[in-house]
Amino acid sequence: MISETIDGIVLRCIEETTCADDMQKINVIKVKYLGKNGEITSVLKSIKDATPEERPKIGKLVNDAREKVELALSKRENEIKEQIKKDKLISESLDVTLSKKRTETGGLNPLSIIKNDILDIFIGMGFEVKDGPEIEFEYYNFTALNIPKDHPSRNSSDTFYISDDLLLRTQTSAVQVHVMKTQKPPIRIVCPGKVYRPDDDATHSPMFQQIEGLVIDKRVTLSDLKSILDEFAKSFFSASTKVRFRPSHFPFTEPSVEVDLSCNKCGGAGCNLCKRTGWIELLGAGVVHPNVLIECGLDPNEYKGIAFGIGVERAAMIKFGVHDMRLLFDNDIRILKQFR
Ligand SMILES: [Zn+2]
Asked: Which pTM was predicted?
């Protein structure tokens, strides 16, 4: 009689266990059958009403039933845990084939690219890069560079003055004065930086960048200047680029020259870029004026110098064929992207 009851309980329990699909249901079944007041435990409690002969039989029946139920429960428990693990693996897996959202990355402004290219060429020729202040004393910007008091460039219409003797430097040549006053020759430097003049049109901006070059040594001549600039032009523009000197005048060099390049677009035949002349004006240069050397504490009988000043915007406009400098300053990435 009891054995039939127990068999029924076990069957029911196994059936419920098989249907259970989560750990919560398994726990409910455990309590229902094996708990303190569970069905199988209750059968065991009835042992006290049985005869001494029946007691061991009932005990064995209950133990067997318990074993069967526990086995079924633990088997189902493992299956459920395994399933949970599988579900987790599927839900947490990454689809590496999924294409990612495109993000725009920034790039250097074309003027920075040009500036770096120019500096790289001069560094390759043994030049050292020097920096100087953008707010400068009138002395370093004008006086020490042999620019007389009445020179038009000293006018407030051509220079941004901050006070009577302080201004926004109008040329990176000011840096060469600092270097000559503190460094013993031989000197071979390039000084890149921003300079300021009150001009604003398609080919002029109130702020633009220059790279000043200076060589001071016992024997440097105009022909060294020519070979340095020739090497630069061939590296920066193309191997077939020619350089031409035209006489000019700057207060800080004597003799002074304007340096032209043969037009890369037409090869010298004449086109709209070179205004039909076959040549493009690139920079100003010359042999350092003895007055500048004296002012910087160098004996002009012992030392000679050559200097040149390259406009970064000018070089960029020629190289990229851009006619309006302001395009390089505007933040239109459709234009800027083309020069990366
Ligand atoms: Zn041309």
From this structure: 0.68
